[in-house]
Structures are given as C-alpha cells and as structure tokens.
What we know:
Elements: H1 3-28, H2 36-52, E1 76-78, E2 88-89, H3 92-105, E3 114-121, E4 124-131, E5 134-140, E6 146-148, H4 151-154, E7 171-179, H5 182-194, H6 203-211, H7 216-221, E8 225-231, H8 234-237, H9 244-254, E9 263-266, H10 267-281, E10 289-296, H11 299-305, E11 307-308, E12 311-312, E13 315-319, E14 323-336, E15 342-353, E16 356-362, H12 366-372, E17 379-384, E18 391-395, E19 419-421, E20 428-430, H13 437-448, H14 460-468, H15 483-486, H16 494-506, E21 509-511, H17 512-518, H18 526-536, H19 539-544, H20 547-550, H21 558-569, H22 571-582, E22 586-588, E23 603-607, H23 615-624, E24 628-629, E25 639-642, H24 648-656, E26 659-662, H25 663-671
Parallel strand pairs: 2-13, 21-22, 23-24, 23-25, 25-26
Antiparallel strand pairs: 1-6, 3-9, 3-10, 4-5, 4-7, 7-8, 10-13, 11-12, 14-15, 14-17, 15-16, 17-18, 19-20
Helix pairs in contact: 1-2, 3-10, 13-14, 17-18
Bound molecules: 2-(butylsulfanyl)adenosine.
2-(butylsulfanyl)adenosine binds at residues 84-86, 118, 120-121, 125, 141, 177, 229-230, 293, 312, 317.
Amino acid sequence: MSDDYSKIKIRAKELRRILNEASHEYYILDNPKLLDSEYDQLFTELISIEKKYPELSSENSPTQRVGSKILDSFPSVSHSSPMLSLNNAIEASDIKKFDQRMRDLLSLGEADATYFAEPKFDGLAIALRYVDGVLVQASTRGDGSTGEQVTENVRTVRSIPLVLSGNPPNIVEVRGEVVMMKRDFNDLNQRQTKAGEKIFANPRNAAAGSLRQHDSKITATRKLSFFAYSLENATRSHGTVKSQSEISSILKEYGFVTSSLSDSVRGLQGIQHFFEHVAAIRSNLDYEIDGIVYKVNSLEDQQKLGYVARAPRYAIAYKFPPQEEITKLLDIEVQVGRTGAITPVARLAPVRVGGVVVTNATLHNQDEIARKQIKIGDFVVVRRAGDVIPEVVRPIVGRRTHIEEFVMPTLCPECNGEISKEAEESVYRCTAGMKCRAQRAQSIWHFCSRKAMNIDGVGERLIDQLVELKLVDSFADLYRLEPEILSTLERVGKKSAENICTAISNSRMTSLSRFIYSLGIRNVGEQTAKELASHFETYERLIAATEEDLMKTPDIGPVVARSIRQYFDDPYLSGVIESLIEMGLSWKQEDANIKKRTLSEKKFVLTGTLNNLSRDEAKQEIEVRGGVVTSAVSKNVDYVVLGEKPGSKLKRATDLGVKTIDELMFIRLLESENE
Length: 675
Ligand code: IVH
C-alpha cells in the first residue's frame, strides 16, 4: 500500500469522525461548533475521496445521510420482541383506576407508585438495531410482529446516530418515534404547493409518507426527527439498569434525543400535575403530541406486571381531550363502501381543527343523523381526535336559519342499484354486491391495503381506472395484469408498471390471517381474521366450518359467523378465491399467531372476580394455550384461579388438595411462554 493511499485512508476516517461529531453537536446537543461553511467544505472533501476510492466509503459515513439506494419494496422484518400498543386513558377516572391497579398489583397499599412520564409523540414507531455500536437495521412497527425494513431511509434522519457513543453492549435495540417537526412540516407543504405536488394533512402523515419512500434521496430532503423512548430487553443487555429513567439517560449517552419534558412523577397527583403542565404548553412545542405516556418506573416492577393481550400492563397513554371547532355543514352526500354500506358524508366549509384543515367528516349512518338532529345548512361542532376520521358531534340549534332534511337516496349513486336496509341493521346498503363498480373498486383497494396483502403502488386512483376500463373485475384479476397493460394507464410509467407487477406477484406468498382479512368479508377485521387463522389453522378447515363451528372461535358471535358463511357460500366470491389459489396464492402455517400450547390439557376452574381480565378473556387465554376451563372443582383439576371473593370453590379446592393460584400468579403462568 502506498504512503499516499494510507494517508488518504486516515484522512477519510478523520473526516467521518469530525463530521459525525459536528452533526451530533448540531442536531442532538443543539450546540454547533463548526460553521455551516466549514462543515460543507469537509463534507465535500469526504465525498470526493469516497468517489475516487469507493472502497474507503462506509455505510456509516455521514455522506450516506443524503440517501442512496432505490428499493422496489421494503423487505419484511420479524421483530425480536413484539412492538406493542398502549392502553388509553381518556377520562380522569381511567387514570385513577390505572394507578389503583398498579398499587394493588405491586402491593403498595397507600404508598405512591413512581412513574416515568413522557409525551406521547405523534409520529411512527421505529425499531433500531445496533450491532457493535453500528446501526444495522431499522424497521417500522407493521402489525407489531412483522414490520418493514426501512434502514436506508432511516440513515437519512440526522438525529439517529449511525454509530452509538458511549459503551454499548454488542447488541442494542432502541425504539422510538420518527416525527416531523411542525416547522419542517410547514416548509415541506409550502414546497409541495409550489411544485404542484400533494400536500400532507398533518406532520404524522408527512413523516410516514417520507419514511416509506422507495428513493431514500427523497426521504433525505424531508427533514425527519427521532425521539428515543425505549431500550429493548434492557435488563438482559444492560445488566445494572433498574428503571425507565436510567434507560432515558443511557439513550442520551448513546447520542439519542429524548424528550426534554420527560420526568419521574409520584402517585396520581404527580400524574395529573404533569398532564396539566404539558397540556398547557403543548401548542408551543416544536412537535405534535397527543397525550402523555406513563410507565411504572422500576423495571423489576414492569416485569412483575407483564402484559395483557397486545399492551403492557405497566404503562398507559393518557390522551389529551379531542379538539373541536364550529363550521357550516354545506351538504350531505353519500359514499359506497366495500360491503355496499352507504355512509353519509358531511361536506363542510373548510375549518382548521387541531392544525389540520377539515372539509369532510363522517356522519356514520342515517340513524346517527336523526339522533343528533343534524340538518343540511346547520352550523355544527366538528371533532378530530388523533388519527380518527373527523366527525360531526352536534348541531348548534340556536344558529339554525332554515331546515333542510337529509334524504337517503333510493338508488346507489355509483351503479343505480337498489339501496335497502335490513330490519335489524342501521346501515343502508347498495344491494348490487360485486355488480356495483364502487364496491368492486373498494374491495380491490382493501385487498391491496397495508394490513391486507400490502401491495405497494396500487392506490385508489389506479384501481378506479382498472375497474372503469374493465381490466380488473375482482382482486384475483390483479395477478393477471401485465406491465404492458398497466403502462397504458394515466400516470403510470414503464418502470412503475413493472414495479407494480412485481409487487403484486410478490404478494402471493402470504399468511392465512392476512389472506382472510384481505377477502373483505363483512364484519371480519384484522383481529377476527387472526382469531380465525389461529383457531382453524388451515383454509380447508375454515371453509368447511358451519356457523356453529365458527362461533366457537373467540369473539365470534352469530352475526359474524353468518357473514363468513354467506361469503364462502356465494358462488361468485368462492370463484374469486379459487382463481386466487390458481394464480399461486399460498401461505405458510402461521405459528406466530398460534399460541404455544403451554397449558395443553391443563384443567382450570375460575372463581371470584378478576381485576385485569374478564372471565371470558381468562377463559380465552387458557383455551388458546390448549387448556380447558370447567366449572366444578374436582380432583383432576390442575389449578383453581382465585379472584376477589372466591366463595365455596376455594374451600372445596383446599379440601381436595387442588392447587390454588391468585390472579398475578395466573397472569405469570399465561405469560411464561415468553420467557
Ligand atoms: S412506549 C409497549 N413511549 O405509542 C409500547 N410509546 O400506542 C411502548 N408512542 O407504538 C411504547 N410516544 O409508537 C412509548 N413516549 C412514548 C411514546 C410512545 C409515542 C407510540 C408508540 C407506540 C404507540 C402505542
């Protein structure tokens, strides 16, 4: 190796160090030490070295922050531990109950519990994996167990360290929220307007859209920020760490930004006080938040408390009240949904609600319009809460000048099919089924959506064209599309036609639960689809199930069972499914959703009132793990679970020498599969 070459190599390394340090000072510490021009000069020097000697470049070089590769799709990533959601507290009474529950379960009596309080950032959750201190993978939350790998895009986020400072262990997983600062959001929308591009409804949508760009150069121009809030498996990877507040300090040491508002608080009073303080300064913050997250501070206590369903028991999100404004209801129109449901939609005079301009709001159904006594032309209160669709809350009757009633049309505005209502339902539907263009388009759109088959690049506008031109009749026809056909459509170039076909083709390997959800069966949402997949395990068993069989699935009652049967019995729809299978759609056995049979053949009796889950939930949790619940205590019962006021079954259990466990022990038993 020549002398010059090794000097250049050393210089490249030094430049990377200086530039990384400068960004840290600028973006994290808010205390720049280099002038912008000095930074630019060093940056240009590094780029020219890396261009000339590509082998000296590295993925962690600051030059990589400008974005590089263009991806066709985002590979999926299985999370090392599920990315959970949080239970919400809406009213003060919810938070009071939460605090009471924590004190009971931790046996604190009258003593105050200590919580770590942090804003609930309104962005999107990201998991970052570092090996030997180097960022190797970034993924979105996805459905909680599988996300999308967005590493290239995340590298462009300046407040995410590419290399950790301090002394990290060899594997570190940090989770947090990618957000767009209000200022950056406004700048972006101004640029978009000038360029005649779409404007984003709010910072969260802008952040999500930017992070899911296939071209990371675009992400790099979008100015995203990151707040870190958790360190996965902290007690295992960081032996001495004992609390959430220590985690927060470690995250700072590694070079992350955490919220400067975060603090430990004591007891219900501390919770309320923090909440009111942050609510008062919320509008002055640089970023959007929609509540406060409280976590029991001690990690040991967190572990004791464990999880219920998809949320930790030790944490809660206390949401700020929804934001309301008054505006004029200009008209009420109707929209046709996937299952033919006719939804009245309010057309409103534009009004800003919580920073977002609202022009449409849902009115749910005709009964709701009648119940709320809403008339066309009224001034109405409009509410937006977090990411839910805005809704019309009530009319201001005192400002009414005339009365114009909404009349439900008798014919479908999309297909002229008849509109009717079943007696026990409040929803009117277009009865034309898949003969209705709108229903076909909506069902295809649902099929492609993220939680369904997750086919990238197939949006509403494209589907409308495909249906209109009769290129696609059902979602099975998507798999017959060729790039040559697609590229004849408006706004579809040759390259994107190819990308779309690849995305469609790649979607064929899926999971049973996604497949069930994608079909768009009335009343079958994502959760029900998962329950069905794990209960029946195979598609053949599912379609052979009678309504009675279906009702044995947790949470499925007669109405849902009937809609499932009706779907599979419809000759047109079952034909579509057959074509799908012919086109090569397949799925692997879904272990992730099938709980390990940790309680196989174990017999349980439940007695007394449980605090954390209902009887039905407890029964379900036992059954999905292969256990059985019976009502009478006998010698072959394995466990009697004692709630509050257990009654005579406790005595009988003691007499027979059957093992009794309290609620906390029961919950640990359920969770022991995760160990
Ligand atoms: S802790 C077990 N802390 O809220 C989940 N989450 O509703 C632990 N979020 O997916 C999450 N700010 O994306 C936590 N300070 C914060 C948060 C936060 C926002 C999001 C997160 C999560 C969602 C759950």
